[in-house]
Design a protein that fits this description.
The chain is of the alpha/beta class. Helices cover 47% and strands 9% of the residues. α13 links the parallel β5 and β6.
């Protein structure tokens, strides 16, 4: 950082005041477990102490759905803003944003997006990484994906600024970056569109699954994975039924055999009754009788309730093998969808619907932006 200049105001980055500002901001933004990562990122941010202090961070009072700063707005009963309460079909699990979108941010972001000032990629990538560590646990995500540009817009602009941010974010968090979507519908800039309803309509079916994209740990599409799960579950249930019925027939055979022996013994005792002993012969019989207790123990130790099984160790194991037991449901894959700004959420929701249409509704889509 020595000798570097602030990307926002052009002033010196290294000043005696800066370390104290970085520590204070890192402490305010982080939980105990995330403090080291956020402190390191703020320390490496190419901004001076004054510009770091002036960043309009969203505080602790924000909408639990879209991440809007709620200091000046009333909460609903669910902790959501009035726009999110009205939203009926919400494909996003939640959105989180780091900064309020104010005039200074608008000017700096336009330099990055529309004038191609790629020096700001590191600055905004670092801010996005701070947001990830502040609001999420990065290791829980299967991958990072981005909002793609239409081919014509990409040709005009020369680069997709969000792809650069994703590269920085993936490097800082260790989450793999995967381009899961393509843009198939060209739309006007959202800033030129009328209102919330028109923006949502323009983004309807604007994205498609990127054929050839592979999500780590979830390579197959929804229909294929469900079919494989169904086949696997069927075979496991068949093995379990075989195990249960095999034990039932063995137990039934054992009970039948034991009952037959008992009836035979009863008939023999009726045919050859045991003579009764009088008082004089009881003592003599007690002296000549074997130790019945030891004999009973030996007989019990050698008793086999299933005479057909012989030695259990030599019999094949009819129980399902441990690796063939019914699997517990896997943790739903979590995808981190990133963009530079959340305005109405129309773009991010459209992306999330496309992802869930391909991967299944069990997939959880979280979004992360710099500005809100």
């Amino acid at each position: 950082m020595r000798g570097s200049t602030c990307v926002s105001c052009g002033g010196r980055v290294n000043t005696p005041k800066r370390e104290g500002v970085v520590r204070a901001r890192a402490s305010w933004l982080s939980r105990p477990v995330s403090y080291p990562a956020i402190y390191r990122l703020l320390h490496d941010l190419p901004a001076c102490a004054s510009c770091i202090e002036a960043l309009p961070f969203i505080g602790e009072q924000f909408c639990r759905q879209c991440g809007r700063d709620m200091r000046a707005e009333p909460y609903s009963s669910e902790g959501r803003c009035r726009d999110c309460v009205r939203e009926v079909d919400e494909p996003l699990k939640e959105n989180r944003s780091l900064l309020r979108y104010e005039q200074d941010g608008k000017s700096l972001l336009s330099l990055f997006k529309y004038r191609g000032d790629e020096r700001l990629a590191g600055y905004y990538g670092t801010l996005l990484a701070i947001a990830a560590f502040r609001f999420y646990t990065p290791s829980r995500f299967a991958c990072i994906t981005t909002v793609p540009l239409h081919a014509r817009r990409l040709q005009e602009r020369g680069f997709n600024q969000v792809d650069l941010l994703a590269a920085y974010l993936g490097s800082a968090t260790g989450i793999p970056v995967r381009p899961l979507l393509t843009r198939i519908k060209e739309t006007e800039k959202l800033s030129k569109q009328g209102g919330r309803a028109s923006r949502q309509e323009s983004m309807r079916e604007a994205f498609a699954w990127n054929e050839g994209a592979v999500l780590p740990g979830f390579a197959r599409g929804r229909s294929d994975s469900r079919g494989a799960d169904h086949r696997n579950l069927t075979s496991i249930l068949a093995a379990g039924i075989h195990f249960l019925f095999g034990n039932w027939f063995s137990l039934r055979s054992s009970i039948s055999h034991t009952s037959h022996e008992a009836k035979s013994g009863e008939r023999d005792s009726q045919a050859n009754p045991v003579p009764k002993l009088d008082n004089r012969n009881r003592a003599a019989h007690a002296n000549t009788a074997p130790n019945s207790n030891s004999g009973d123990r030996a007989a019990y130790a050698n008793f086999n309730p299933n005479p057909n099984s012989h030695d259990r160790a030599t019999q094949p194991n009819t129980a399902p093998p441990p690796n063939n037991r019914i699997p517990l449901p896997a943790t739903p894959p979590k995808i981190l969808l990133i963009d530079d700004i959340y305005t109405t959420g129309s773009t991010l929701r459209s992306c999330a619907r496309t992802l869930r249409a391909h991967l299944g509704t069990v997939c959880e889509i979280y979004s992360l932006t710099i500005y809100r």
